[in-house]
Amino acid sequence: MIERIKKLKVKKSDGTLSDYIPLGADAKYVDLDDGSTVQEAVTNINTSVEELQSIVINNSAAAHNGYYRGKDLTSYFNSGKMSTDLAAGDFSNIFPGDYIRKTKVIDGITYTDHIDIIAECDAYLGKSTGDGQRLDTHHVAIIPFDPLGTTKMNDTDSTVGGFTNSKMWTTTLPKYLTGYTNAYGDSHLLSFRSLLTKSIGTNQPNRFGFTSGGSSNFEYLQTKITLMSENQAYGGIVWSSAGFDTGEANTQLACFRLRPELIGFKNNGWWLRGIGTKEYFCSVSGFNMADCSNASSNKYVRPLLLLK
């Protein structure tokens, strides 16, 4: 609805309304002939849009998860106001697709002004905290928009031990978490429980239709970083070998539902956490296709974290 609003009127100094002023780049060329400056006209338009937005869309996470915006929230986050609003459950200035720029140093490599986008508001709200309770801390899930380097899931083409025994989980993701912690501050990263595969059956049937191995068990682990599941990327399973691959990550993230083209992530593709076979982990191809890749292949790392 908001996207279809093409023009607005602003109030002149004498109390009457101006002619229609088009939104977007052309607005800066409008002459009001009433003593107002062009900048005042643009400011009035922006304010009117924000006021209208608050009327049409309430400030809940659920309502905002239906709209992709794409606004820079870096200053908003750095000021501390974003964290205050999140703590109060106020998502009035937060939408999927909005982004934060932070310089990160990961495994000795500096990524200057690297962009993370908001994948979903309150993505893990209501999920298990492991003590018979549900997560009730308001947050946003963030994922990289720009590449953060390539790496392997394992040094060899093996998925034995599942995701929790992979090199990605034990060695690589901790380095990424350090980079994010230094960039955002540990107090802003929310800990959550992730249900992850811990073993495979080497002769277990899989989605390929063969008995070439698949996940056979999982475990809850407390973490501040993980890889996404196929469900979070596509909204369903494709190559994940069993239900053990999905766990708590069972719904598609809002940013991908609203902008499916964002699932594709540069030409090299990126890793997901699901087990495909005894040799393959699930991945997304660079051409936005569901894929499965040898565990020793180099793919982009696209972690998911929760920001509060």
Briefly summarize what is shown.
This protein is an alpha+beta fold and 308 residues long. It contains seven helices and 14 strands.
By secondary-structure content and strand pairing, the structural class works out as alpha+beta
Count of helix runs: 7
**Main sheet: strands, sense, barrel:** 5 strands, antiparallel
What percentage of the residues does DSSP assign to strands (E)? 25-35%
Rg computed from alpha carbons, rounded to a whole number of angstroms: 22 Å
Fold and architecture overview:
20% of the residues lie in helices and 25% in strands. It is α+β, with helices and mostly antiparallel strands. The strands form five sheets. Strands 3-4-5-14-9 form a five-stranded antiparallel β-sheet. Strands 10-11-12 form a three-stranded antiparallel β-sheet, with no helix packed on it. A two-stranded antiparallel sheet has the order 1-2. The protein has seven helices and 14 strands. The N terminus is likely disordered. The radius of gyration is 22 Å and the shape is globular.
List the helices and strands and how they pair.
Elements: E1 7-8, E2 21-22, H1 38-56, H2 61-64, H3 74-78, H4 81-87, E3 99-106, E4 109-121, E5 140-144, E6 150-151, H5 167-184, E7 192-201, E8 214-223, E9 226-227, H6 230-234, H7 254-258, E10 270-275, E11 280-284, E12 290-294, E13 299-300, E14 303-307
Antiparallel strand pairs: 1-2, 3-4, 4-5, 5-14, 6-13, 7-8, 9-14, 10-11, 11-12
